[in-house]
């Protein structure tokens, strides 16, 4: 069997702990140094103090099993707090939300979106008699919706975005059929950082009697604070009529350790569709609100710890820091001849590319940046570089603009030797 990764064999005798840690450090040699602030994807850093707190909280719950809150009731309390705090940020305390919002913790944005689709599928089957429902999502909606459709035998209908890269309500309305059960909106979208017209989509969902999920995995711990800072004023949460579920990732702009997201539903009845319950085996009663059974409690504890540590004022400060940096990056990109920002992103996610792809290969620019230690995702249709600006990268934005200007000026007609646009891969 071929082994492209060069596997480490099981040692005949256990190695000393220090030696094991040295081996781990050696294996990380080629990993990107996110601590240096040059990684504009995948990692969201609030600084060393928060990172050290996360490590300590993870260690405190390293052995506990998040499946069973009867054996470990503290995990249940931590989950409840995180769901309630997230729901409050997403408008649950506003009378317009209806006051019944409930939710569940998941392992990440993908799992939250999987549950949104599964819940819609189950509602379609039990309440509308639709065996194979359709989900309508703009081409900008996350790839996890395609994954969910594949997992749960649902038809996903992708609808083209408008010239501003936002979902087009008229195109969405035209795509609705008798099998449509769920509309999808994003706040913001991952590819271009724009916020879909949530109010218009909510009105469409209400008019047609559809469920409507707002994917705020990127924005759930960002847009509420930008709103409080007076930097964002578009309705996007449960205060919008028609929104029936929302997702928000704590491990993105919540600055928690990887592995914690929240999905909230407008009513307890919808939330109950997510829970799996059975007693048809010899092991007794089994219930789970997540895809996984056994799941690590460490990320849950670490998320709770960082939320308590930062508080409202901490999140406001981090949001302002990241947004100021994103504005500087956007201004820097727009000041470079030949480059253009895609759409009009209001927050901290920015995609940019060539005004004229025939004159400048933005992927060649990306390669040049990579050689200088930067890491930005690459996207197609149109070709773009993608930057997620967070508090940990804020201090490097000005240097990125300098290197970006240099790269654009020296690339000329050079073409990239690598046309791949992968975001996530697994062994």
The CATH topology of the largest domain comes to Aspartate Aminotransferase, domain 2
Derived from helix and strand composition plus strand pairing, the structural class reads: alpha/beta
Number of discrete helical segments: 12
Give the CA-based shape: globular
Average of per-residue pLDDT values: 94
CATH architecture of the largest domain: 3-Layer(aba) Sandwich
User: How many beta-strand segments?
Assistant: 13
H/E element string?
HHHEHEHEHEHEHEEHEEHEEHEEH
User: Looking across the biggest beta sheet, what order are the strands in?
Assistant: 1-7-6-5-4-2-3
Helix content: 25-40%
CATH superfamily of the largest domain: Type I PLP-dependent aspartate aminotransferase-like (Major domain)
Biggest β-sheet strands, sense, barrel: 7 strands, mixed
Model regions low in confidence, pLDDT < 50 over at least 5 residues: none
Q: Cα distance, first to last residue?
A: 14 Å
Counting structural domains, the number is: 2
Structural Rg = 22 Å
Q: Mind telling me the CATH class of the largest domain?
A: Alpha Beta
Strand content: 5-15%
Task: Pick out its properties.
427 residues; alpha/beta; Aspartate Aminotransferase, domain 2; Aspartate Aminotransferase, domain 1; 2 domains; seven-stranded mixed beta sheet; four-stranded antiparallel beta sheet; 13 strands; 14% strand
């Amino acid at each position: 069997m071929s082994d492209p990764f060069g596997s480490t064999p099981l040692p005949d005798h256990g190695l000393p702990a220090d030696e094991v840690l040295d081996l781990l450090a050696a294996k990380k040699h080629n990993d990107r140094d996110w601590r240096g602030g040059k990684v504009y994807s995948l990692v969201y850093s609030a600084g060393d103090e928060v990172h050290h707190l996360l490590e300590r909280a993870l260690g405190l719950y390293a052995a506990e099993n998040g499946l069973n809150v009867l054996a470990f009731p503290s995990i249940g309390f931590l989950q409840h707090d995180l769901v309630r705090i997230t729901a409050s940020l997403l408008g649950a305390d506003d009378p317009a939300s209806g006051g019944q919002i409930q939710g569940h913790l998941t392992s990440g944005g993908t799992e939250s979106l999987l549950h949104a689709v599964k819940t819609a599928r189950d509602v379609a089957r039990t309440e509308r008699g639709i065996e194979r429902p359709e989900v309508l999502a703009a081409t900008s909606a996350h790839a996890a919706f395609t994954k969910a459709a594949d997992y749960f035998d649902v038809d996903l209908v992708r609808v083209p975005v408008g010239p501003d890269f936002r979902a087009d309500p008229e195109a969405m309305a035209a795509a609705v059929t008798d099998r449509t059960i769920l509309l999808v909106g994003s706040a913001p979208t991952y590819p271009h950082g724009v916020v879909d017209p949530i109010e218009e989509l909510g009105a469409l969902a209400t008019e047609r009697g559809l469920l409507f999920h707002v994917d705020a995995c990127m924005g759930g711990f960002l847009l509420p604070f930008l709103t409080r800072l007076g930097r964002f004023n578009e309705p996007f949460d449960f205060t919008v009529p028609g929104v029936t579920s929302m997702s928000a990732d704590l491990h993105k702009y919540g600055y928690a350790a990887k592995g914690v997201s929240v999905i909230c539903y407008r009513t307890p009845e919808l939330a109950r569709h997510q829970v799996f319950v059975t007693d048809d085996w010899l092991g007794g009663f089994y219930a789970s609100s997540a895809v996984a059974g056994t799941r690590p409690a460490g990320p849950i504890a670490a998320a709770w710890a960082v939320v308590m540590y930062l508080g409202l004022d901490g999140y406001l400060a981090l949001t302002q820091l990241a947004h100021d940096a994103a504005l500087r990056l956007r201004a820097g990109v727009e000041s470079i001849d030949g480059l253009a920002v895609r759409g009009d992103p209001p927050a901290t996610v920015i995609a940019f590319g060539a005004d004229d792809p025939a004159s400048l290969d933005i992927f060649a620019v990306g390669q040049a940046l990579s050689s200088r230690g930067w890491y930005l995702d690459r996207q197609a249709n149109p070709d773009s570089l993608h930057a997620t600006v967070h508090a940990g990268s804020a201090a490097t934005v000005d240097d990125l603009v300098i290197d970006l200007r240099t790269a654009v000026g020296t690339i000329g007609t050079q073409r990239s030797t690598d046309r791949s646009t992968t975001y996530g891969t697994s062994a």
